[in-house]
Amino acid sequence: MALKQFRFRAKEDPARRRVNSVDPVFLILVMLLLSVVALLLLLGVSVVLSRWAVKPVERAWKQQRQFLSDASHELKTPLTVVRGCAEVMSDGVIPQEEYPEYCRRILRETDAMSRLVSDLLDVARLRAGRISFELRDVELSLLGQSVCENLRT
User: Fold this and answer.
1) What does pTM read for this prediction?
2) For residue 78, which of 43, 115, 45 has the smallest C-alpha distance?
3) Of the residues 1, 39, 63, 111, which has the fewest C-beta atoms closer than 10 A?
4) Which range among 2-6, 34-38, 44-48, 134-138 shows the weakest confidence by mean pLDDT?
């Protein structure tokens, strides 16, 4: 007589079966939703970091625009004086005996423009690293006198 093997199986509860098994479509949707949320979070962080990184550049551009505006104004003012003096001299509006005064004005303004252009070139050389400084003692009284004389002219 052959022995029969018996296997006992517990009856499966259909409700429990549904809880343990997850619908693959649901898993795909959850993964897709999590991916979209992670992508949006990454995008938000990158926008914040890029704005933070660009602030110094924007500040430098703003300073450069202001500097160029100031420099062009400082050059335009003496040019206006020079042009005005030259026009009244050439048109004969002023008497010839006043020409020397107008010529002195023109010379003063061209000297001012020359100093300004020289200063601008010094700034460019300084930024390029082509200027070195030499520290030395300065007599403050002579420096003060020099400043006062420059302010008078």
Assistant:
1) 0.48
2) 115
3) 1
4) 2-6
Q: Residues 75-104: pLDDT tens digits?
A: 888 889 899 999 998 998 899 899 999 999
Please, are residues 120 and 71 in contact by the beta-carbon 8 Å criterion?
A: yes
Residue 47 confidence (pLDDT): 94
- List helix spans (H) across 92-135: 99-128
Pick the closest to residue 81 from 103, 100, 116, 109 (CA basis). Answer: 109
φ, ψ dihedrals at 42, nearest 5° = -65, -40
Crossing angle between the packed helical segments 24-91 and 99-128, to the nearest 10 degrees: 150
Q: Is 7 exposed, middle or buried (0-12, 13-18, 19+ CB in 10 A)?
A: exposed
CB burial string 109-135: b at 16+ within 10 A, e below: beebbeeeeeeeeeeeeeeeeeeeeee
Name the most confidently modeled range: 36-40, 60-64, 79-83, 93-97.
36-40
